[in-house]
Amino acid sequence: MLNEQDPITGITGDVSSQPVPQFATAEYAGASSEERCRICGAAIANEYFRVNNQMACGKCAGEAREGQPTDSHAAYLRALALGAGASLLGLIVYSTFAITTGWTIGYLALAVGWLVAKAMMKASNGVGGRRYQIAAVLLTYAAISVSSVPVAIATQVKQVSEKNQQIRTQTAPGNTKSEDTAANGADAKKNDQSLAGALGALLVIGLASPFLELANPGSGVIGLFILFLGLSIAFRMTAAKPLDVDGPYSITV
Q1: CA-to-CA dists, residue 174 to 167, 171, 180, 183, 186, angstroms
Q2: Domain segments of the chain as ranges
């Protein structure tokens, strides 16, 4: 064996028996090699805990256990209110896009599910759970399905407008027969009553629209699948997310 002096450390001995430097981990002069809490940065001497698989000191682990987000009636009501607002916003965006472009893009259901869940978790300060998940799914479904109602109304209004335009075009300017005027007035009144009376039926039909589209199996099945994905996003995002605290563990030297 050769006893040589290390030119850097000045240590004399068997060079081949010296530990190989670990260049993958940088160590700086004056820095301690002891373990530290990943939350507060304090040194950990004898034992440590894990908070969501992150090393933590006893103080931070205790605060994590005591600081678990707690559910309350007020938090749930806030989540419902903001979630309902997000659902309404999603309905408006979804239906407006369909009305203005004439296209129905089912993948917008994914964005609606994300929007509703994000709003609910924001309002509840991160509190989730089963009732939040159920509410998020229902609000997402309502926004996506009922969006067909404004689209149907816009279509019906357009058809009525075109029909009235045809009636006005077919009526000669010089025609002053009272019976024709009365007939036209009766038709317009009938159209207004039909539009108003159809709102309730459209709401029910709107809620059932995802399943009614199964009349066309190809697009109907695809639409239901995309709807399911949107509901799944809302369900997962509003699940309870407790802090996982375990330990203590001993530090082996």
Answers
A1: 14, 9, 12, 16, 20
A2: 3-67, 73-237
